Amino acid sequence: MEENADGGDASVVPYGRCAAELRPTEPVISPLELLRSEKVVRICAPMVRYSKLPFRALVRRYGCDVAYTPMIVSDSFVQSSKARDVEFTTNYDDRPLIVQFAATNSADFARAAELVAPFADGIDLNCGCPQRWALADGYGAALMKKPELVADMVHGARTRTSLPVSIKIRIHGDLRETVELCRRAESAGCGWITVHGRTTKQRAEPCNFDAIKIVSSSIKGQIFD
Ligand SMILES: Cc1cc2nc3c(=O)[nH]c(=O)nc-3n(C[C@H](O)[C@H](O)[C@H](O)COP(=O)(O)O)c2cc1C
C-alpha cells in the first residue's frame, strides 16, 4: 500500500480531491453495456456501513464486475463538503461504480448526481430502505408510495448528467403497485430497476422470486434481483 504523510492509503481520494487527483481512467465498460451483454454480471449490492471503498476494492479483486456505494443521503451531500469527503471516496480502479443516493426530492437528487458524475458510471435512487428513520423522513421505501415523485427524480437526474439512472425497490403487498412504479420509472428514462423481492416489513423471510418474475415480465426494460 502506498502511504500518505498520515500513514493512510494514498490511493484513497476523498470527494474534495477527486477532480484534482483522479486523472481520466482507462475506458470503463458502462454498466448498461454489461447488463445488456450475454454474460453473467457479478454485482455488489449497496450496503450501508459495508460497501465503502476498501470493501469495493476487495470484492473487485474477487471478480465483482460492478459495485455500488452504500446509500448516501443526498441533502447533506449537496450542502456540506465535509459530508462529501466522508461519504464518498474513490480511486483509479474503483470502476464501474454506481453511486446510490437517498433523496426526498428531485433537486437534491439531481444535484448530488451531478456532483459525483465525473467519478461514477451510474446513479441509483434508493426506494427500498425500510429503516424507521428513513420512512419517517420520506427516504427509501417511503418513495414506493410516490411513483410520480420517483419518475420526476429519475427524469431530473437524467437531465443533469449523461449517466444511466436506476432505482432499487422492494415489492409492495399488491404487486400491481410495484408494476405501476416500475412502468413510471421506465417511462422517465430509468436505465434498469433492481428489485429486492421482499416487502418493506419483511427482513429475513425468503425472497419472493415469483414476484420479481412477474414485475420483470411486466416492463420492457431490465430488472435485477
Ligand atoms: C447490512 C446491510 C446494509 C444494506 N444497505 C443497503 C443500502 O445502503 N442500500 C440498498 O439499496 N440496500 C441495502 N441493503 C439491501 C441489500 O442491498 C440487498 O438488497 C438485500 O440484502 C437483499 O439481498 P439478500 O437477500 O442476499 O440479503 C443492505 C443490506 C444489508 C444486509
From TrEMBL:
Keywords: Flavoprotein, FMN, Oxidoreductase, tRNA processing. It holds the Pfam family Dus. Gene3D superfamilies: Aldolase class I (3.20.20.70). It comes from the Eukaryota. Residues 44-219 form the DUS-like FMN-binding domain. GO terms for molecular function: flavin adenine dinucleotide binding; tRNA dihydrouridine synthase activity. Its cofactor is FMN. PANTHER family: TRNA-DIHYDROURIDINE SYNTHASE, TRNA-DIHYDROURIDINE(20A_20B) SYNTHASE [NAD(P)+]-LIKE. This is tRNA-dihydrouridine(20a/20b) synthase [NAD(P)+]-like. It comes from Geodia barretti. The lineage of its organism: Eukaryota, Metazoa, Porifera, Demospongiae, Heteroscleromorpha.
